[in-house]
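Work Package 3 committed the consortium to producing structural models of liganded targets before the mid-term review. Because experimental data for this complex are still outstanding, the team generated a predictive model from sequence and the ligand definition alone, so that downstream docking and mutagenesis planning could proceed in parallel. The input record is reproduced below exactly as it was submitted to the modelling pipeline, together with the SMILES string for S-adenosylmethionine.
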Amino acid sequence: MSKKHKDTIQVQFAKTVEAFSKYAVRDTPEILAEKVEFARPLPTDFALDVACGPGELPLALASRVRFARGIDLTFEMLLQARQFQLQRNIQNAQFERGDAEQLPYCGASFDFVSCQCSFHHMLKPELVLREMDRVTKPGGRLVIIDSLAPEGDAKFELHNRIEKIRDPSHAETLRLTTFLALFEKFSLEIARQALKRRPRSFNQWMLRAGLEPSHKHYREARKLLEDSFPGDRAGFSPQLENDDIRIVHNEGMFLLVKKSE
Ligand SMILES: C[S@@+](CC[C@H](N)C(=O)[O-])C[C@H]1O[C@@H](n2cnc3c(N)ncnc32)[C@H](O)[C@@H]1O
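The resulting structure, written out as tokens with the ligand in place, is given here.
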């Protein structure tokens, strides 16, 4: 990942940490609980969450595992994660700064390694998966959750164009077929897979990226989205709702097993 892109990520997430973690939060507590259930954590697990942001997933996992770590590039996100940890009095978790492309851990350090809604920020998703695989013990598990882009080229391009106007730190939302090919490349066996439709408010989604309706990037993204209504040309299944638009992110959840050597 280029230094420029990493700088953009840190600027973007330092700016949006409050919206992201407090007033335009992505997942309801029910959806977070659903993700924890999907992951099937074990009480003996040493767990790592990569690109943990404000730490909601590792903090939710902490009550179900032996120890949960979170790592992220953005300092402000880590401060927020530590604040949530203190408020919730969670003892068996720790947050540290680091790069998903170069995880600062020895090989086979963790039983469980997750990454939620962050692959689309990675310029080199294959390198990130390689690192996640490296730090997972043989027989250990990986959980990857992220939005999925439409398979067709035209929809894929418009979908990612709107995402990138909204958030300059967006790299590329991957297709389901791209994820599946990546898992195969690392011989990761799919133990569970779920495809979920996650309805979202366009206005909240924009707010989470720091964009009010008066912002030129809000207007640009909205115009493209409105133009995409006929034939759902960007793959967001948009529906007008008063001054808002209901959109849908197709989310893939994958529980993968690293084969024992
Ligand atoms: C959309 S947020 C998701 C945060 C969290 N996983 C969640 O679902 O709430 C993306 C996060 O990825 C982090 N990130 C992006 N690239 C990274 C990298 N190369 N290494 C570590 N963290 C990274 C950002 O700092 C940000 O906190």
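Reviewers should note the following from the model. The CA atoms of residues 126 and 185 lie 9 Å apart. These observations will guide the Year 2 experiments.
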